[in-house]
Amino acid sequence: MTLKPIIKNYGRLIVGIFIIGITAFFCRQFDFNRIMGLEEIRSWVDMFGPLGPLAFILVCVTGVILHLPEIVMIAIGALLFGGIEGFFYGWAGALIGSTCTFLFVRYFMRDIFQNSVAERFSYFRNIDGFLVEKGFQTVLILRIALFMAPPLNWAIAVTRVSFPKYFAGSMLGIIPGVAITCYAAESLVKMESLIDLLSVEFAIPAFLFFALISASGLSGWWLLRNGNRGKGN
After folding, report:
1. Where are the domains of the chain?
2. pTM confidence score
3. Which of the four pLDDT bands, split at 50, 70 and 90, describes residue 233?
């Protein structure tokens, strides 16, 4: 195979992999995990004064794109701005970051997945068709259950689900995870002793967290069932 057909068929994928490689190199060089602590983010936000909330949203967007622990950053937002403001800033940052990841993967990698994987394996075709038909409901359930799991952004992006359905499902689906994280962060700050962990104030986020974990398992089973059902048809 000559170079021209390779570039034609795999050009976007090659560029995408190159961008990922460059990003990974810089992440390793600058150790972003180290500079994403509470005091480091507080200094960054304070440096921008009135534009501090926008600076924090930018931090969240960067964290999502670089697959840094989003929950930690959202919790830091609640500590810096309070539960309500922190919720909105964390929600905006998580949504923008996941959307950027979705658009990147869709542009550079969806075609190769559709041509090389989805067409060859009926299971992926069935899941793909299911997402086209019920994209909003599926994305909503997956977001509620898996929150900001990085593989989820990539997996959905290579399917044929429409962008409006993805965006709407993500916009609503990440609300419970962000809200629980902000509530738990504020509650931990108010904790005076370990006995406080037994109070209702701490029991609520713990219960909601385990509810999301259970929903994650159910959603996975639901998708597998629908994929196998479509395969049988």
Report:
1. 31-232
2. 0.76
3. very low
